[in-house]
Amino acid sequence: MKVLIVNQSDNEGGAARAAYRLHRALLESGVDSQMCVQSRILDDFTVLGPHTKMQKVLGKFRPIIDSLPVRHYKDRTKTLFSPAWLPFSPIVHRINTINPDVVHLHWIAGGMMRIEDIAKIKAPVVWSLHDDWGFTGGCHIKWECKRYQQACGQCPRLGSLKENDLSRRIFLRKQKTFAKIQNLTVIGLSRWLADCAKESALFKKYPISNLPNLLNTESFAPFDKHQARSLLNLPQNKKMILFGALSATSDINKGFKELTESLLHIDSENTELVVFGSNQPKTPQGFKQKAHYLGRLYDDVSLRILYAAADVMVVPSLQENLSNAIMESMACGTPVVGFDIGGNSDMIEHRTNGYLAKPFDTTDLACGIEWVLNNASYEELCQNARKKVVAEFDSKFVALKYMELYSSLSVNLAPKAITK
Length: 420
Hints:
Blueprint: E1 2-9, H1 14-28, E2 32-39, E3 47-48, H2 53-66, H3 91-98, E4 102-105, E5 125-129, H4 166-178, E6 184-188, H5 191-199, E7 208-210, H6 225-232, E8 239-244, H7 256-263, E9 271-276, E10 290-295, H8 300-309, E11 312-315, H9 324-331, E12 336-339, E13 354-357, H10 362-373, H11 378-392, H12 395-412
Parallel strand pairs: 1-2, 1-4, 2-3, 4-5, 5-6, 6-7, 8-9, 8-11, 9-10, 11-12, 12-13
């Protein structure tokens, strides 16, 4: 079986890391897998990036050019919005030249291809949704908006009051394009996002499955806390609270504001904060606790050591699909506290391996942090966290589920929804 994984990047962002991990797990399971990307970062011959220097240069500018129609909306929010209108992408031609049995799309925004290009893919298509973009009129984070269940328009992300705005036009383009695809199976990585897709006007007629991201639980495993802190130059005599994400302090959806408010309720004498994904800012951010900024970490070894050094991981995102950070932290035996939203409950079992706070209640978030840090059965929490990931998200187990799906599509050429 020949599978082609398609994602904007092979290593930049959570979707890229998840897609690449699936690709490697398929290879290790004996599947003929390749990965096709617009931005290639890793030195891996099984990842196919731009052929020429010109294509590499254009690949860097495509996200900027693709965003131009959005800039007409002066009252738009800072959250990502992708029109996917930019023509002349070589990706679809390359996909069809490779001629795979199954094409597995992941995060394909950033000017990677036009919406209309998806219908030109000749092989059966599987599409893993890493955010809301697939079934909305362009936004990646819908938050409270439910206009995707009808036809978008009057988009709150654009700050628009018009029905026939950019979001409506993008929605109609998707509707027309998706109707032309003969073999499309949609994957909600979390139960929550699968349910959102089923409620959407664009995807409700298509087979929708819930299959998660996967993780190599041998690479992400417990590590001696004392050694981990020594390697990272962190104090041994403090309880360490970990927070991190790509652009951790500037992305409003990552909940940095909510974290800051919750930490006001936490003892500062015995706790300190570790932030990764962002460098130390010029001006102090007002934490009671001493904060250690570790910047960007690019390899799994460093991440494993970081998770092991922490006593608790806090993921206060306002919307979350199936967080890599939660899964990684739990696999390393570090309990996680987050809001009870999105796909967090797929991994965090309340008061068993972590804590699910009431949505956006920073006082309850603080209670969760303290509950983990001062728990009399802390070691049991840590063991439960790892057991959950090993049992339900280990790469070997989940890869088999994807292989079963691919086989049903490539052999029968008729997509069928499968259940986890």
